[in-house]
Amino acid sequence: MSKQELRIAIAQINLLVGDMEGNARRIIEALQDARDNLQADMLITPELALTGYPPEDLLLRPGMYERIDHALLQIQQQVTGIDLLLGYPEQTPEGVYNSAAVIREGTIIAHARKENLPNYSVFDEKRYFIPDYHACVVPVGGANVGITICEDIWFPDPPQRLREAGADLILNINASPYHINKGYEREQSVADRCRETGLPVVYANLVGGQDELVFDGDSFVMNGEGTVTQRVPAFTEQLERVCFNQTESGWQPVQAEVLLAPLSTTASVYQALVLGVRDFVRKNGFNGGVIGLSGGIDSALTLSIAVDALGSEEIEAVMMPSRYTADMSVEDAAEQARTLGVNYRVIAIEKPFTAFLEVLADEFAGLAADTTEENIQARCRGVLLMAISNKKRKMVLTTGNKSEMAVGYATLYGDMAGGFAVLKDVPKTLVYELANYRNILSPVIPQRVIDRPPSAELAPDQQDTDSLPPYEVLDAILEMYVEKDMGVEDIVSHGYDREIVQKVMQMVTRNEYKRRQAPPGIRITQRAFGSDRRYPITSGYALPGQGRGTRGE
């Protein structure tokens, strides 16, 4: 290979948190492939590749580091004929660093250590790591390569120090989770660093689902002018070769023959949901998924995602009609199940519902029917689904969306019962967009399901708008309040009725106790319910127009 050419291989791979042995095998396989088939000078892995990301409190266990050291040694022994940039937690007498080791011929020759430790949103790195401020520049294939880790590329100082230390280009390894528009935000930030330093950047990112997070990969290369020259397909594992040529103006990345276009917002969200379901179910050792198929839009979209993630043979759909279930719901559920080829069952809940009412007759004597009886129906369904899950080792995939979760329009131990909430961070208006998008790929959701007014079907002629504002209004208010932390006056100034705004905010606050008991779900927005948004259940903080200490039903 000419000294005027540098070949870097990006390992955009899917790893499992805590599985150091398995991750080491994956890294060694990628290393050998990059050396033997891509003739690369160096393979670069994602941030904390050896442990997976985020390892969270596993990093507080002393035995964790014994396993890390053992796996690291196994990898080192396989590094011959190619350099390796390996992300891992580096334990030292001073503390633990979020590090990237440069390994050459079995020896660690340098460490790059993360400087900017994110401690916001879903990130908690200051709990585990200490920062380091030294520039790491190593010679690779004739070029001086500077190394940064994830967040450090978002700030001017670390790349600038690399340039001052003589770097010709920058390798940035990441475990950057997906949310809507995240790819655009990354490219804008990296472009700023490229223009400030005049250096090209290789941005290598993790791919795969980890609990509520989805890592989209979407790795890319930029030249010193901040122009993308190469993109790696998002949401897929890929070993990608990046070539640099030495020119009079420095080391320049070779322009890809075909530059991939970024995915549309709807396509990226859908792929994130599919990947999140696939990895959560499979990495946790379940045989597939089971879904309560109601004939409504949420369960229809959830079923489509589950089939795309796991295959129709691994999915069981159960229609559980009650006395209030419309005939069209039964018909549409059956049609979708046939179209997707899933294992489909109809189990009516009239008998268990009646039995519960009989058992509770004395307790309820003299009291009018209300939401209690509606919730009993939902809980009958929850019991049935969980029984199927226990017996068949299929995970219950719940179907509630973010709009419902925000305002408590869901039943504890009923439709909230399950292992994974596929649409937990998907607003209702986006549910419709995703359903239409999926039908463009192939028609799998009956059009009548998309067109009909949404209803929980727990009472006669019930519609969601009986209890909630129209979803286009509700979702706009929720986005401003939940995701942007806007107050009443700010939201009202955008043209929304003050009484409705206050009612929605009160509902969000009252139902924190419900959300705390909900299963984890896939994060696709900048502020999801879960580790992303941490509010007390018991609180004396009152919103305008709200009494102190109120709770949901």
Helix/strand class: alpha/beta
Give the number of domains. Answer: 2
Remind me, CATH topology of the largest domain?
Answer: Nitrilase/N-carbamoyl-D-aminoacid amidohydrolase
Mean pLDDT: 93
Features:
single chain, Nitrilase/N-carbamoyl-D-aminoacid amidohydrolase, disordered C terminus, 2 domains, Rossmann fold, 17 helices
Can you characterise this structure?
It catalyses: deamido-NAD(+) + L-glutamine + ATP + H2O = L-glutamate + AMP + diphosphate + NAD(+) + H(+). Pathway: Cofactor biosynthesis; NAD(+) biosynthesis; NAD(+) from deamido-NAD(+) (L-Gln route): step 1/1. There is one protein chain. The longest helix is centred in the last third of the chain and has 22 residues, at 371-392. A hairpin with a 5-residue loop joins strand 12 (220-222) and strand 13 (228-231). Helices cover 36% and strands 20% of the residues. With 553 residues, the chain is of the alpha/beta class. Mean pLDDT is 93; it is low at 547-553. The chain has helices at residues 20-36, 62-78, 157-164, 182-197, 265-283, 297-310, 327-340, 350-359, 361-364, 371-392, 402-407, 428-441, 447-451, 471-483, 488-492, 498-510, 512-515; strands spanning 5-12, 42-44, 83-92, 95-104, 107-113, 136-140, 143-149, 169-174, 201-205, 207-210, 213-216, 220-222, 228-231, 238-247, 250-253, 288-292, 315-319, 343-346, 394-398, 420-421. Helix 5 (265-283) crosses helix 12 (428-441), helix 6 packs across helix 12 and helix 8 crosses helix 10 (371-392). The protein contains 17 helices and 20 strands. A 7-stranded mixed beta sheet has the order 5-4-3-2-1-14-15, with helices on one face. It has a 6-stranded mixed beta sheet with strand order 6-7-8-9-12-13, covered by helices on one side. The chain has 2 domains: 5-254, Nitrilase/N-carbamoyl-D-aminoacid amidohydrolase; 267-515, 3-Layer(aba) Sandwich (Rossmann fold). It starts with a strand and ends in a 38-residue tail after the last helix.
